[in-house]
TrEMBL record:
CDD domains referenced in this protein's UniProt entry, alphabetically: SufS_like (cd06453)
This enzyme's EC code(s): 2.8.1.7
Protein name as annotated: Cysteine desulfurase
Organism: Idiomarina aquatica
InterPro entries linked to this entry: Aminotrans_V_dom, Aminotrans_V_PyrdxlP_BS, Cys_dSase_SufS, Cysteine_dSase, PyrdxlP-dep_Trfase, PyrdxlP-dep_Trfase_major, PyrdxlP-dep_Trfase_small
Sequence similarity: Belongs to the class-V pyridoxal-phosphate-dependent aminotransferase family. Csd subfamily.
Cofactor(s) listed in the protein's UniProt record: pyridoxal 5'-phosphate
Enzyme class: transferase
Length: 405
């Protein structure tokens, strides 16, 4: 089977837009994906038919909102193969999920402990662990990458030791597209007794995720990169770990009992979810996942790989263009620099032609430094992109070269 891209595109109203007088060619999917009508409808339906606070009201709408909200937790749990739906904690996004974990880890780390991250880390993962180490006196160790953008797996194994208390790594690099062998690396880290967090921001939208198969302790991702709304994300954590995790935000919803002098905490998942949650976001995310489950994961993968392959061929034929990130195992991300042209100028000229990409350091400043580039231009593909989009990208790049080089 192949993906029916025309039918998929029809479900994304924004793709019918023009920008700068040109049909939109949206190639900034690693930053955020567009939303299908099913997600937009779910949000509108929630606000027009069901809006109410959850877990609180003694009335019909509150009951209905709570049912939809908790059903969404089950949808997410099934999508990532969580053992129990209470392991799904709602967050505002990957960043908050990682911070939630770091809040707990930092309280347990001590001088002499080591935390492992990688050279390809997004700031959300890097800065959080760097600061957790600073607070606790633990040492941050950075696993190097090869020039291709692949993780140096041998170095990973060498850096792992009995001192390793925690390992955080991306499933997929947002800047380069590299897919890391997280299952193998997680197994090695667990064998040393470390806890493992996978930054899944770029991992979730490109294939089925099975957190139990990966074997990690935590997996964090954002709804907005998975065709869902912004402001909603998921931290999945193993029940036995989360159940004794230090509380994070305190306030309503997460308590069991409160006196003026003290409080006791509720059960999972509530104990890690203080305050009124992003109910519409949760429902929108579940709608996105349900919609995505209507497509065949293998077809999605094959389609994105075909786009990447064609884009890579055209990139290799483009004089002066250098691909940044040439790992054999990549999602549909093409990061590149062009001799003599600043990435920001490439982005500007592409935008004038309706082609939306991202330029800059991709929230990975140390990685850019490591690779010796000021930043890159990054085209990232999704299920609704076509071969015509790839051709449009390179037509626009050629124009940029004619204008600027
Ligand atoms: N990690 C990676 C690998 C990412 O790509 C991103 C988003 N660019 C994040 C973390 C942070 O995600 P969010 O901004 O949605 O919290």
């Amino acid at each position: 089977m192949t993906l029916n891209v025309a039918q998929i595109r029809d479900q994304f109203p924004i793709l019918k837009r023009q920008v700068n007088g040109q049909p939109l060619v949206y190639l900034d999917n690693a930053a955020t994906t567009q939303k299908p009508q099913a997600v937009i409808d779910a949000l509108v339906d929630y606000y027009t038919q069901c809006n109410s606070n959850v877990h609180r009201g003694a009335h019909y709408l509150s009951d209905e909102a709570t049912k939809r909200y908790e059903a969404a937790r089950k949808t997410v749990a099934a999508y990532i193969n969580a053992g129990r739906s209470e392991e799904v904690i709602w967050t505002s996004g990957t960043t908050e999920g990682i911070n939630l974990v770091a809040n707990g880890v930092a309280q347990r780390l001590k001088a002499g402990d080591e935390v492992l991250v990688t050279e390809m880390e997004h700031h959300a993962d890097l800065v959080t662990w760097q600061q957790a180490c600073k607070r606790s006196g633990a040492t941050l160790k950075v696993v190097p990458i090869h020039d291709s953008g692949e993780l140096n797996v041998d170095a990973f194994h060498q850096l792992l030791s009995d001192k390793t208390a925690f390992v955080a790594m991306p499933h997929v690099s947002n800047a380069l597209g590299t897919i890391n062998p997280i299952k193998e690396l997680t197994a090695a880290a667990k064998a040393k007794g470390a806890l493992v967090l996978i930054d899944g921001a770029q991992g979730v939208a490109h294939g089925a995720i099975d957190v139990q198969d990966i074997g990690c302790d935590f997996y964090a991702f954002s709804g907005h990169k998975l065709f869902g709304p912004t402001g909603i994300g998921v931290l999945w954590g193993r029940y036995d770990v989360l159940a004794e995790w230090p509380v994070w935000l305190v306030g309503g919803e997460m308590i069991a009992t409160v006196s003026y002098q003290d409080a006791t905490w509720g059960e999972l998942p509530n104990r890690l979810e203080a305050g009124t949650p992003n109910i519409a976001g949760v429902i929108g995310l579940a709608a996105a996942i349900t919609w995505l489950q209507g497509l065949n994961a293998k077809d999605i993968w094959a389609h994105e790989q075909a786009l990447l392959k064609r884009a890579t061929e055209l990139a290799e034929q483009t004089q002066g263009l250098r691909i940044i990130g040439t790992a054999p195992n990549k999602i549909g991300v093409l990061s590149f620099v062009i001799e003599g042209i600043h990435p920001a100028d490439i982005g500007f000229i592409l935008d004038k032609q309706g082609v939306a990409i991202r330029t800059g350091d991709h929230c990975a400043q140390p990685l850019m430094k490591r690779l010796g580039v000021p930043g890159t231009a990054r085209a990232s593909f999704s299920i609704y992109n076509t071969m015509d989009d790839v051709e449009a990208l390179f037509k626009a790049i050629n124009k940029a070269q004619m204008m600027l080089a």
